[in-house]
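Lab notebook, design round three. We kept the backbone fixed and only want residue identities now. Task for the bench partner: fill in a sequence for the structure below.
Input structure tokens:
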């Protein structure tokens, strides 16, 4: 297995007029930010012991509420307990443990080289916290994508406002109700709401913004941040390509592709978004994919406790329309009332088809037939640079060629998603997948 990661660094009205809901929210946000900024300026969040205490409190929250978290995720996304634990709670716990084990070292000043004029001086780099951070999470991994950035914020000595996604409403409620009981409320807050509330929240000046979600909303976040010159991290997504080379074992490849593509019903930003292979490889791969799907989810995936659902009606309709691309080789069934779309494999897909024009973010795997590796690389490079790129090949020279001729946030050879399990690798994108 081979990994790669790039490190890119209210108006009008008289005295008797009731304040509008919007005005009240803005006032409330200002009050929250004022409280957190006062705490930060007091130096409360800077000491090692405070940071360790908050990290341990976060770990305690996860441990004591594991069942409630799994229940909320099941209601929001039909996420199985297994998926909830390995992709949400256990990954956060791993991140916390890495921070607990390394925080003292991270906080040390870093000496730097001196020149002759400063020989008798002291020169060093000190890692300073930004201040009050805003963390805006996403609905597909609604605990993970809020709390892992929070681990970083706490470790670095910041205060933070957390904004969970309103689309995963049960998880949003759980976080807003329970998390403040564990963390210092003078330094950390959870706010709820939809697009309007988020827009109002972004009108306030933060010292750092961490956003996970779509490129379109990412542009709005960046525009709002630019008014205050606030630094921003955007974790967006993109169409992650996958090339399956001749000579790969079809069953092993199918096992790894099916797991990665249909985990969380395909609603994963680093999942393989489409597969490219030669025609003879496709003829071997498709039957193996069908066999693996039955082994993983049974003959009726809708009845499987391990297969998720689309998060809401709007996304269900969006994903459903993509089924019209190419030819359905496996799956294709839909149940609007259950927000269920069967794990589907499409063949005879063209680069111009609708399914190739956007990130799918659903349980559909298109297969494009190409004539050569060169054609596959050309298609990869015509797309926006992805968050992840995958290749299955028995030939290390083929992998090295793809590494040399493409650019992506992360790379994984002969597997998928596994780069996410390494805290030692940066999790970054490039341009629209940043």
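Proposed sequence:
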């Amino acid at each position: 297995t081979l990994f790669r990661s790039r490190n890119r660094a209210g108006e009008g009205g008289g005295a008797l007029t009731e304040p509008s809901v919007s005005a009240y929210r803005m006032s409330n946000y200002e009050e929250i930010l004022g409280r957190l900024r006062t705490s930060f300026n007091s130096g409360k969040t800077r000491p090692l012991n405070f940071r360790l205490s908050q990290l341990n409190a976060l770990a305690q929250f996860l441990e004591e509420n594991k069942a409630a978290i799994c229940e909320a995720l099941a209601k929001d996304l039909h996420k199985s307990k297994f998926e909830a634990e390995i992709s949400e709670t256990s990954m956060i716990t791993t991140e916390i443990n890495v921070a607990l084990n390394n925080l003292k070292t991270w906080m040390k000043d870093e000496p730097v080289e001196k020149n002759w004029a400063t020989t008798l001086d002291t020169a060093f780099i000190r890692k300073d916290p930004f201040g009050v951070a805003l963390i805006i999470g996403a609905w597909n991994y609604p605990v993970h994508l809020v709390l892992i950035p929070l681990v970083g914020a706490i470790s670095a000595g910041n205060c933070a406002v957390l904004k969970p996604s309103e689309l995963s409403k049960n998880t949003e409620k759980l976080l807003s109700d329970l998390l403040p009981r564990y963390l210092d409320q003078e330094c950390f807050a959870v706010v709820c709401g939809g697009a309007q509330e988020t827009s109002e929240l972004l009108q306030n000046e933060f010292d750092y913004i961490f956003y996970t979600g779509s490129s379109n909303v990412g542009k709005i976040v960046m525009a709002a941040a630019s008014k205050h010159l606030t630094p921003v991290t955007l974790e967006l997504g993109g169409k992650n390509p996958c090339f399956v080379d001749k000579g790969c074992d079809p069953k092993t490849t199918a096992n790894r592709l099916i797991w990665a593509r249909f985990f969380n019903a395909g609603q994963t930003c680093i999942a393989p978004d489409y597969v490219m292979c030669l025609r003879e490889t496709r003829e071997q791969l498709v039957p193996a994919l069908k066999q693996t799907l039955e082994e993983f989810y049974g003959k009726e995936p809708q009845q499987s406790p391990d297969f998720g659902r689309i998060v809401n009606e709007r996304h269900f309709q969006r994903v459903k329309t993509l089924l019209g691309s190419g030819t359905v080789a496996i799956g294709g069934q839909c149940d609007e009332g259950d927000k269920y779309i069967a794990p589907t494999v499409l063949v005879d897909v063209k680069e111009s088809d609708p399914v190739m024009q956007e990130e799918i973010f659903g349980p559909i795997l298109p297969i494009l037939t190409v004539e050569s590796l060169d054609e596959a690389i050309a298609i990869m490079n015509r797309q926006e640079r992805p968050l992840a790129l995958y290749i299955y090949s028995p030939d290390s020279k083929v992998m090295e060629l793809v590494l040399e001729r493409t650019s992506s946030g992360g790379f994984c050879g002969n597997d998928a998603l596994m780069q996410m399990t390494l805290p030692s690798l940066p999790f970054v994108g490039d341009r629209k997948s940043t």
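Keep this in mind before ordering anything: The first strand starts at residue 2 and ends at 5.
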